UniProtKB/TrEMBL annotation:
GO molecular-function terms, A-Z: dipeptidyl-peptidase activity; serine-type exopeptidase activity
Presence of keyword Glycoprotein: yes
Record protein name field: Serine protease EDA2
Top-level taxon: Eukaryota
InterPro entries attached to this UniProt entry: AB_hydrolase_fold (IPR029058), Peptidase_S28 (IPR008758)
Keywords of the record: Glycoprotein, Hydrolase, Protease, Signal
A Pfam family reported for this protein in Swiss-Prot or TrEMBL: Peptidase_S28
Family: Belongs to the peptidase S28 family.
GO cellular component, one term: vacuole
GO-annotated biological processes: proteolysis
Family matches, as Gene3D superfamilies: alpha/beta hydrolase
Region forming the signal peptide: 1-19
Amino acid sequence: MNALFVLLLLPLLSPLLTANGKRFRLPTDPGAYLTQEVHWFDQTLDHFSPTDHRQFKQRYYEFLDYYDVSNGPIFLKICGESTCPGIVNDYTSVLAQKFGAALVSLEHRYYGMSSPFKLTTTENLRYLSSKQALFDLAVFRQYYQESLNSKYNRSKVESPWIVFGASYSGALSAWFRLKFPHLTCGSLASSAVVLAVYNFSKFDQQVGDSAGPECKSVLQEITKLVDQQLPLDGVAVKDLFGASTVKDDVDFLYLLADAAAIAFQYGNPDVLCSPLLEAKKSKQNLVEAYAKYVKEYYLGKFGASLNAYNQQILKNTSLGAEGGDRLWWFQVCSEVAYFQVAPTNDSVRSPRIDTRYPHSR
């Protein structure tokens, strides 16, 4: 067991400056999961009320194929701001096999099938917060430890618990270790957004730096052209990008800014910059060249959804596949922040994307 603690009791990882306000999504391919067998338990709705005893059903998964019943640890993989369809087969399964660990994963309240209410009205979202989610994890940790002890006919066994997370769930992982040090002996917090930034103009600055001078200049030229063309014929411009359903102009501009940023954040700069530089060199229409990238890569291969930028969709309070975007925007605006606004000078994205924009949603 010593090797395990040397590996996982490292200092918490610092949040990356490229932290993105977009939701972290798990794979959709069933083959990417160790298990998708669903389990449920009764979770407290409001951990901070002494009089409210309401509960809701929260979904979780377990994978015990590698578990050493005698002294194996428990790896808690925290699901964050999306539906949680199972336990992903990733590096944690390699660690679990090496150290004889049980793998367990809890779906975040409100997301996926773990919704306390049938409607996601603003009133009903009052219990959606990282603070409530941390106590969800603490309650679940105690429940599952007792469940595992009962399953293997053990008495008062306290396994070593290590929590894992990335991005927002990485922040939960770090905070859980700090808030409940008696319930866990280690935390891996990858790209953890632990320090909320309100005016996050550095994100756009990093996009420009990552693009390099030539590509950055072309992106800035495209932004200016779109800003000029939108007031003249916004319908035609949006149609060009296959985004006619995005009615609000600033929502549309945010879509275009995200599309560029994703190429650098996910390590595919050539997919964006090469065709744009070629279009510039051959004096092609730059807006059309960028529209081709957005449609074929960002909305196509990458799989971004226009609904995430459509305020009418985001106002829909019924539960459904697109509900996660509304939930995440609520968390962003109420506590997470990281608003990716345009810097005062030398911005890649439109200056219309400022701190007033998120609050208009």
